[in-house]
């Protein structure tokens, strides 16, 4: 009886081998991570921290590919067209996945259907910064100046439709003031123009502005979350520095694959990223950028994306913002 079963067991093992091979050998070639913003911005910095760690610790080859434009939607649109083979990923964030679908009438992707959540890397409040020699010392100063001279104060952002853009609009509406939005193609050029005084201030991710705040070229006026940032403990919240007591907005950054990516590959990347995020040196690198690491499961990350997507529908509608 045993002799009769042996050939059958051998055939079963051979049949299972192809299915098991991808998980055993993955990744067998370089993984491309699209960053939908220019080099130097918060999304790019965090993607490179994670990519470098996976290269060094796991001996993977993770290649960062910057594809900026249209508030990050160009890079996301390219990512959803890529094959779902586990070797194409994108570093997405709240801007282009939870917010953009309610802003852009002709958006070519649906984040709930066209992408697979893989690993949440970090969360971070936004920060409002101004040049070191700016007359503004607090957000109360900004409100007072805007009321005294409507439409004279400008604020930069990494682009139309980003969370930073909408936070500026939310602040404007909540404070009852008139300030003018100046969109840029990414954080770096907006930071440069804020330092030089070409724009009065900027709504930025903390990672994008952190180095210039530390160097003294930018002054941080306030963070947008309900609590102070661990990376900028001396910077007040908007709620602390103004009468806007309920103001609370944060952003998140994470890795996605195209829809229907192999589950075993999603799990492999998630576990590898989470292992790195748990290390003290990686935590320190991310905290130094003003973000906080958030190792969670792919399922929990997918739920976060879905929840924020629903939440921002009302916020965008209230702002009246619409982009083509």
Automatic annotation (TrEMBL):
<protein>
    <submittedName>
        <fullName>Tripartite-type tricarboxylate transporter receptor subunit TctC</fullName>
    </submittedName>
</protein>
<comment type="similarity">
    <text>Belongs to the UPF0065 (bug) family.</text>
</comment>
<dbReference type="InterPro" id="IPR042100">
    <property type="entry name" value="Bug_dom1"/>
</dbReference>
<dbReference type="Pfam" id="PF03401">
    <property type="entry name" value="TctC"/>
</dbReference>
<keyword id="KW-0732">Signal</keyword>
<dbReference type="InterPro" id="IPR005064">
    <property type="entry name" value="BUG"/>
</dbReference>
<keyword id="KW-0675">Receptor</keyword>
<feature type="signal peptide">
    <location>
        <begin position="1"/>
        <end position="23"/>
    </location>
</feature>
């Amino acid at each position: 009886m045993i002799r009769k079963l042996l050939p059958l067991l051998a055939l079963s093992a051979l049949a299972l081998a192809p299915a098991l091979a991808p998980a055993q050998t993955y990744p067998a070639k370089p993984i491309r991570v699209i960053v939908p913003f220019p080099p130097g911005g918060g999304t790019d910095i965090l993607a490179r921290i994670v990519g470098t760690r996976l290269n060094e610790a796991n001996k993977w080859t993770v290649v960062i590919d910057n594809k900026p434009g249209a508030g990050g939607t160009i890079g996301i649109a390219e990512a959803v067209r890529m094959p779902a083979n586990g070797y194409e990923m994108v570093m997405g964030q709240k801007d282009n996945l939870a917010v953009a679908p309610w802003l852009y009438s002709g958006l070519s992707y649906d984040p709930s259907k066209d992408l697979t959540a893989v690993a949440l890397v970090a969360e971070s409040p936004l920060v409002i910064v101004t040049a070191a020699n700016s007359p503004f010392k607090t957000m109360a100063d900004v409100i007072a100046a805007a009321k005294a001279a409507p439409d004279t104060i400008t604020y930069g952002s990494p682009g139309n439709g980003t969370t930073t853009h909408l936070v500026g609009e939310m602040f404007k509406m909540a404070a009852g003031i008139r300030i003018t939005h100046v969109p840029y193609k990414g954080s770096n050029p907006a930071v440069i123009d804020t330092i030089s005084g070409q724009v009065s201030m900027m709504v930025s991710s903390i990672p994008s502005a952190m180095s210039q705040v530390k160097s003294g070229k930018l002054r941080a006026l306030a963070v947008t979350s309900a609590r102070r940032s661990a990376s900028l403990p001396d910077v007040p919240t908007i709620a602390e520095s103004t009468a806007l007591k309920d103001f609370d907005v944060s952003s998140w950054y994470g890795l996605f694959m195209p829809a229907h990516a192999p589950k075993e590959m999603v799990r492999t990347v998630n576990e590898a990223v989470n292992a790195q995020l748990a290390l003290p040196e990686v935590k320190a690198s991310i905290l130094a950028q003003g973000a906080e690491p958030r190792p969670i499961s792919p399922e929990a990350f997918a739920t976060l994306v879905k929840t924020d997507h629903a939440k921002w529908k009302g916020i965008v509608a209230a702002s009246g913002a619409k982009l083509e």
